[in-house]
């Protein structure tokens, strides 16, 4: 699990996917609110875990 949590390339790919999904959702090209909202919440939690561990 730690290997996945600290994987930089996976984090960058996930960042791009989440931001692309949010932009398309905002522009109303797609209607994936059922998928985008949980993915965004998990992404934000992951980001805070990385920030917290980086500051230690």
Please specify the SSE layout and strand pairing.
Elements: H1 2-5, H2 8-26, H3 33-55
Q: Keywords, please?
A:
elongated; 56 residues; 82% helix; mainly alpha
Description:
By secondary structure, the protein is an all-alpha fold. It is 82% helix and 0% strand. It has helices at 2-5, 8-26, 33-55. Helix 2 (8-26) runs antiparallel to helix 3. The model has no long low-confidence stretch (mean pLDDT 75).
Q: Note the gap between the termini.
A: 19 Å
- Sheet/helix structural class: mainly alpha
Rounded to an integer in angstroms, the radius of gyration calculated over CA atoms is 13 Å
Distinct helical segment count: 3
The ordered H/E elements are HHH
Shape: elongated
**Beta fraction of the residues?**
under 5%
Topology, number of strands? 0
Mean pLDDT rating:
75
